[in-house]
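Supplementary notes for students who missed Thursday's class. We covered one full example, reproduced here. Read the sequence, then the structure, then the short commentary at the end.
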Amino acid sequence: MSSIEQAKQMAKRLRALLAQRDQEISHSTALELVANQLGYKDWNTASAKLPGEPAPETIAFERAIPILRIFDETKAREFYCGFLGFDVEFEHRFEPDLPLYMGINRAGLHLHLSEHHGDASPGATLFVPMRNIQAFNDELLGKRYGYGRPGVVQEDWGKVMEVYDPFGNRIRFCQY
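Structure (token representation):
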């Protein structure tokens, strides 16, 4: 989200909070107040100087999608879809008897799973920041998965829950 859009959202929240206290203000007044809080003399100056969407030629990275090596489609589906609750986005094979390449996702986390020899090495670790880690842990424990029962551990940097897939890959979920 661009800085301009963030400022507009701030103005919207300000109006809503003031309305809860029976203090109605116009949208333009809220924009002016937010501009002042951001150090600009008025909204026109703020909207001219705040960064908008980057130009098309600007280097910008989208989300990273890790590729994890798998060796057995059935075990991968049992772990990632059955246990962790991911949905399959797509599946690809060059021919019916060739290795699987599959995209999965859950709640904004996208992973690619590959049986192809050169795509990844087993034993990877993914660090996944998240919200509501305890609810996720409770959900997983409720499934009584035979090959793992993760727990949440409080570390200095936040709550951590680790799961290990059948291929030696580790996913470290963390709530700050």
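Commentary. The chain has a mean pLDDT of 92. The chain has two domains: 3-49, 67-175. If anything here is unclear, bring it to office hours.
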